[in-house]
Amino acid sequence: MKKSVRLTLLIALVAVFIFNCQEEQSKSINKIERKNFGEVKRGAKKTPEQRALYHEARELHEFYRQVNPATGKVPISEKRQEFRQAEDSKFRSSNPMARRIQTNYINRGPTNFGGRTRSIVIDRTDLSGNTILAAAVSGGVFKTINGGSNWIKVSSNDAIHNATSLAQDPRAGFENIWYYGTGEGNGNSAALDGAFYLGQGIWKSIDGGNTWRQIPNTNSEFTAYDSAFDITYKLEVHPITGDLYAALGGQIKRFNGTSWTTEIENSSVFTNRHTDVVITSNGRVYAGFSGTNDAATRGVWTSPTGNGSWTRFNEPSFKPAGRLVLALAPSNQDKLYTIFDNGKNSDCEKVAIVGAELWMWDQSTSIFTNYSSKLPDEPGCSDGNDPFTSQKGYDLEISVKPDNENFIVIGGSNAYKIENITTQSMFTRIGGYKNADNYEIYNLGTKVEHHPDIHDLVFSITNPSVLFSGTDGGVHKTTDVTRSIVGWENLNNNYQTYQYYHVAIDPLPGSDIVIGGTQDNGTKAGGTLVGTPDLTTQFGIYGGDGVAVGISRDQPCLPVFLGSQFGDFMRVCDDYISIAPEGSTSNFVTYFHLDPDNNNALYYAGKNTLYKTIDASNVTTLTWTNMGTTSVFTHADNFEIFSTTRGTYNPNSSYLLMGGDQGHIYKLNDPQNAASLSLATDITPPTATTGFPSIVTGLAIHPTNKDIVLATYSNYGTNSIFLTTNATSAQPTWALVERNLSAHSIRSAAIAEVKGETIYFVGTARGLYSTADPVNLDWIREAPELIGQALVSSLAYRPSDNHLLIGTHGNGMYEAVLEGTLTVDDKALSVAIKLYPNPVEDSFNIRMPLGNAGKGTYAIINNLGQIVLRGKLEEKPIHVSSLQSGTYFIKLYVDDKTAVKQFIKK
């Protein structure tokens, strides 16, 4: 059997698990077998088969973290309960015992990079064209009123973030009405998990997209894929009736404001049945059905009014095999362009084939014109890049210049244009990859990189030569698409939509350097100490799928450790040095652990093999110590997470914890000197679920007490949070401390100690939580208005100055500054300090008790808990003119005391 067939079968089998996620009543166990991807050559050119393999592995990475190991399915009842628990936990902060440590949250971006964007709509009521809304697949809906100079998230943090389509009511007097749809039909980084793949219905705004409410009868919230509203491909509003048209899975539905009518529906199930819809200014509606629909519906349909009277107008040679998308020519709406996946896969080593067809339908003549021969096939060849490919419909887009019915732009892996489709021979490249020969990112014209994987191409409403793009890299704009060399502007300014797998913080106290591995956007880093202008700007270090990361202070050059999928592993100092252990293999998200307090020690997860070095700054591919495999414990967990004791290394008390994908936790004493993994002991909690998949996602060791460990598991239907207070014993005893998070998928863990007080953190599939006592006190949701219910995939704590770095999968990165409660002396200092003037317009002064004047530092905090300004008290007066109007707090640090005062910025 060919590999491509095996992959197709496997994807289909896994899809069955998701699409039939009904509540299981029986107690039978459907065992999920770990997919073994074998050895993948590092750095080799990716064939189409490898690209499919990467896509599958990325999906399974998330699926394995959620599936209930006892049923083989994602339990819908627990996902519903998880949502309710998250909502309830947001209000538990009123418990005075729950918050013994003050926590201030700082946004760490990246605000200059964006994630996957499926839809862009320019507000027709703003004649300047500067008001734009964008839908980010795992980030939500964002709005800008200044042309992309700054974005604000307008969808709720408590809603599922997978926004995929936007539409504005075009009727005069009704332009305040907007809609967005949810659920991505293919390509999401978590497509098999039921978290981002399935949507949450369709949402409506009546105030220009500032606030949103779910349309009640589209509520497909947390169910299996049993409703067409689970996935929205396209939304359009009728310019005459105001009816909303939704292109859903295998269906076109119409909403008159009260009820839904199915206009066209295929006769088979609606899973993976791509559709599209466009509407002319006089109300004619066109609908497209992909080649994966049944033969009776696939192709293009039209209705003069959109209310019945539908006809299909395919011709014999018009045969879409996969996804099909439509575009009208604004200057001549009799012309309808359609581009579709033709089911053909290019292989540069065998035969190069264009993976799509392009046709134009003329309603005035009822004639199709085939323009497929003009699709890009440039000199050179690189699979997934050239010839034109949509990666099986994952990225497919077409748009027509508003003032020229023959000027067409299309998107697949790359963006292309043809200025006159009737006379020119072939489209030319304007974005994505730089050229046809390799995978260097396009940066021509303005030197700004334009990300591949094109999902939306939208012309400006004020200037027909201005084009916006929505890609896997966010939102970009070109000011003149007619130029011979098209350059782009980056509009990802506070468009915070990045998906992190792992994050790390510089171990040096006081440093603001951070790093993170992201889904399909490589490894990014930031911090003013490495040259960024602020705390939210980041820069790219490495490509591919970002994975585990680490920052070392073991050498003057500040080495960082990073990698990409399937075992690619680098040390970056003066240059890039490959250091993956010779002969090792890895999971898709390559995992390793740099001891944050003893940077000489580095541990690498070679699936179920442990590799170590105690010379991380000089290790080569050949100098690792192979410590053996988990098979010595009669089960062969692949390693998923490591943790080391904090502080200076001590052979008598330091240890390494290792968590696997079969639920086991191992402890290895004196790991820097241990010769073999066989010396480790299995300390798995007795009530933890074992057997694949049961993923250990967090192992947090108390920074000063090695006996205290918090362990977390991610799979639904399993016990998920455990605490031990005697971890150094031969057989630790564990307490189950889920409490009010019993239904949550737990993804990460950390323990902090501030001024003798301990606080426990867990990152979940629905936000970040903390408690001062997990045995007796419920968990409360942290930063509900900032982090919200984003999936918190990674936590990295620096005990030396109490900073906690938070990586989310879809909402970027945040940093928490933990402070102890005010002492009696601190409170007295707060009372004695005076601010004037207050309210303040531009600047204010601070009057302090005698002996304290001019000493210490300050931080200004907004009402979301974000630190927005810092400075020294000797710098007088304190200028706040850059702040927006509102209520703020200034926190002063004087000697070993702190003080907090409130002020109002006019």
Description:
With 906 residues, the protein is mainly beta. The protein has a 4-stranded antiparallel beta sheet with strand order 1-56-55-54, with no helix packed on it. A 4-stranded antiparallel beta sheet has the order 2-3-4-5, with no helix packed on it. The chain has a 4-stranded antiparallel beta sheet with strand order 6-7-8-9, with no helix packed on it. β52 (767-771) and β53 (780-782) form a beta hairpin. The radius of gyration is 28 Å and the shape is globular. The chain is built from 4 helices and 63 strands. It starts with a helix and ends with a strand. Among the domains are: 341-496, no CATH class; 498-819, 7 Propeller (Methylamine Dehydrogenase, Chain H), CATH 2.130.10; 827-905, Sandwich (Immunoglobulin-like).
CATH superfamily of one domain: YVTN repeat-like/Quinoprotein amine dehydrogenase
Calculate the mean pLDDT score and round it.
Answer: 88
> Class by helix and strand content?
mainly beta
Number of helices: 4
Instruction: Give the class-level CATH name of one domain.
Output: Mainly Beta
List segments where confidence is low: pLDDT < 50 over at least 5 consecutive residues: 1-30, 93-99, 189-196
Radius of gyration: 28 Å
The total of beta strands comes to 63
Q: Main sheet: which strands, in order across?
A: 1-56-55-54
Rounded to the nearest angstrom, the distance between the terminal CA atoms is 71 Å
In CATH terms, what is the architecture of one domain?
7 Propeller
Overall 3D shape: globular
Largest sheet: 4 strands, antiparallel
Amount of helix: under 10%
CATH topology of one domain: Methylamine Dehydrogenase, Chain H
* Share of residues in strands: 25-35%
